[in-house]
Design brief:
With 343 residues, the chain is α+β, with helices and mostly antiparallel strands. The protein contains six helices and 21 strands. The protein folds into two domains: 159 residues; 168 residues, Cysteine proteinases (Cathepsin B, Chain A). Strand 10 and strand 11 form a beta hairpin. Helix 2 packs across helix 3.
């Protein structure tokens, strides 16, 4: 069968990473080449019981407008952290702007505010493109950094580009990710825990099984009253020995690369009635699913909204899935075992 060329919308995304104790080769095996920007060292300063991990100044290939930080701390020491970002727009650096804190600590030092850089629950968005960015994580207790860690920043320009992409039926492949249903959990939380359920599926894939309720309790952000805070998901996985990062996927090719590397992708999707045929829910303003494989012109997905584990595996049309994921933000969690090669 001859492949056809289609124009597909894509964006430019860079994934910057700074690490302590995580080998560069493990990251090379886990980050799509189109997004990979190398591995840097970071400066760590400690005052009392608080450590500040500060990455070097990062320069996106194109001015970035969508910035998603992540922090993966591979240790069992309970800790808290928050991100702080300063952006260069034109010739002026913004003040340091902080996210919500993950964990119970309170960091009292004041942070700046600017209309040009807006901090949401999980990410930063900017009015004018960012030429350079500085990211740091404030961590308590400082001893948590004795374990390996990685600090990441996904920087995307959000400018849709038409690219020529081969649209051919992909050979069938499926990763052996166990299927869990959020609908089997307690009535009070079952409608709210798609993210913990997806993370639990991928942890089980990597040989780190945990119960969905335990993971949900660990990921719950009391101040925001949410189970689906993206950095909290990466943190919860890391506490169980599985590294990870957040990425604004630029195109389908990067997701396909992850699958061929043996890496499931937890995808954040949104859709209205009729936009995703075969979904167990009619619409959603935000839902997480696990992308586990491909089958011709369909994608194979574990959708935790299925009524039972047998109802979780789904086949979605690839063109529809692209639309409800890549054209609605495109954010994904990639969790990987930094201590061994990807499967």
């Amino acid at each position: 069968m001859l492949s056809a060329l289609f124009e597909r919308p894509a964006v430019n995304t860079d994934l910057f990473v700074a690490t302590g104790g995580v080998g560069p080769s493990a990251l090379t095996d886990a980050i799509p080449p189109a997004c990979r920007r190398g591995v840097d060292a970071a400066r760590v300063t400690v005052t009392a019981d608080v450590a500040v991990v500060e990455a070097p100044t990062w320069t996106p290939r194109r001015g970035a407008r969508h910035l998603v930080p992540s922090f993966s701390l591979l240790g069992a020491v309970p800790c808290s952290f928050r991100f702080e970002l300063s952006a260069l727009q034109g010739t002026v650096w913004s003040p340091w702007i902080a996210t919500a804190t993950i964990g119970p600590a309170t960091f009292p030092d004041p942070m700046g505010v600017t209309d040009d850089v807006v901090c949401g629950i999980d990410m930063y968005t900017v009015r004018r493109p960012v030429a350079r960015a500085r990211l740091r994580a404030r961590v308590q207790p400082a001893r948590a950094l004795a374990d390996p860690w990685m600090l990441g920043l996904s920087a995307s320009d959000l400018v849709s580009m038409a690219i020529d992409e081969e649209e051919d039926a992909e050979a069938s492949s499926r990763l052996g990710v166990p299927a869990f249903s959020q609908m089997e959990e307690a009535l009070a939380i079952r409608e709210r825990i798609c993210s913990p359920t997806c993370v639990a599926m991928v942890l089980a894939f990597w040989g780190r099984p945990t119960s969905v309720p335990a993971l949900a309790a660990d990921m719950f952000h009391e101040g925001l009253d949410r189970y689906g805070v993206w950095p909290a998901a990466i943190h919860a996985a890391a506490r169980r020995g599985v590294a990870g990062y957040l990425l604004r996927f630029p195109d389908w090719a990067s997701a396909s690369w992850c699958l061929h590397q043996g890496l499931p992708v937890i995808a954040s999707i949104r859709f209205e009635p009729g936009e995703l045929a075969g979904a167990p829910i009619p619409r959603t303003d935000g839902h997480l699913v696990v992308l586990v494989g491909t089958d011709g012109d369909h994608v194979l997905v574990h959708d935790p909204a299925g009524s039972s584990p047998q109802d979780v595996p789904r086949r979605y049309r690839r063109d529809q899935f692209r639309r409800v994921w890549l054209e609605r933000g495109g954010v994904g969690y990639v969790l990987f075992d930094a201590g061994r090669a990807a499967r």
